[in-house]
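Chain A, query sequence.
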Amino acid sequence: MRPYSVISVSAVRRNLSLLSRAASVPVIAVVKDDAYGHGAEVLAQHIADMVCLFAVSSVEEGVRLRVAGIREGVLVLTPVLRREEALRAKWYRLTVTVASAEGVALCAGLSAHIAFNTGMNRFGFAPQEAARACRLCRAHKVRVEGVYSHLYDASDASAVRAQTQAFMECCAAVRADFPSAMRHLCATGGILAGGAPLDAVRPGLGLYGYAPPPFSDTLGLTPALRVYAHVLHAAPVYGKGAGYGAAQKRYAALHTLGAGYGDGFFRAGGLGAVGALCMDACVREGALPAGRRVCVLDDAAAYAKEHGTTAYEVLTMLRGLRKYYAG
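Chain A, predicted structure.
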C-alpha cells in the first residue's frame, strides 16, 4: 500500500474563517495546483459557502472545478495563450486574467480581471498602461469584473506601501470605466502584514494551515494535511548500515516504510529515515510490526525547513498522493 494523505475539512474551514475575520472582507480561495495538494475539486465543494470566488492557475484547473459541480465564480490567474483556450474558458463560464494587449484580444467577449505588474515583474499591465488597458477591454468587449496585483514581499513594509500606492492608482483608472470592478491585492502574507484588504483577499497557503516565510502564525492556523505510510518489513538486522548512504553502524532493530522519493518526498532524507530515501521505501530505526500505519508528515513547514525550502513546495510535491477526507 502506497502512502496517502488525510485532509481535515474542518481545519480548512476554520483557517478560512480566521483569515476572513482578520481581513474583514470576502475571500477568494486559491485552490491552484490541486489546492496545494489538498484536492481542489473535493475541497472546493466543502468551502463553497464561505468564499466569493475560487482562483486557479489554468483553464484546465477551472474546467475540473466546473465538472465537479462548482457553480461559484472561478478566476484563472495565469493569462491564456491561445484563442481555443479562451473559448474553453467562455464555455465553462470561467473568468480569465488579462495582462497584456495580446491577451485582451484573445479574450474578446469574456469576463476578466485585469492584472497589473506593480513590482512582482511576473506578468501584468504596467501601471502607466491602466487607461490603455481599459480602452482595449472596451474595444474588445471584455467584461471587466475585477482588478488585481500581487505583493512580492509582504514582509517589507516600504515595498508594500509602494506597491499599494501604484495599485490604487490602477484601481482608480479601472473603476472610472468599470465602477463595480472588484479590487484584490493581499494573499496570506498581505493579510498577516495588515495590508490593504480592499474588496477581497486572496489567501492560498493560509487556507491549508501555514504562514508564508518570514511570517509567524499569529492567527492560530491549523495544518490540514497529514501523510500516512505502512510498515512494509521488519526483520532481524544483518550486518552494518541501513538504506542508501547510511552510517556504517550496528542497529538493534530496523523497519521499512512504504514511502520514498517516488511519492514526492525528498531523497536526501527526513521522515525519520536512516540514510537517503529509496524510490518507494525508507528504512527507519526501531522495531515496528509489518502492516502498522505510521504518520510520516503532519507539519509541512517543519519538513520543509529540514530541506531548505518552504511548505509551498512540500505540499505541491505531495499532490499525487491518494487523498481521504475527514470532518
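DSSP finds eleven helices and 13 strands in the chain. Residues 9-208 form a domain with the TIM Barrel fold (CATH 3.20.20.10).
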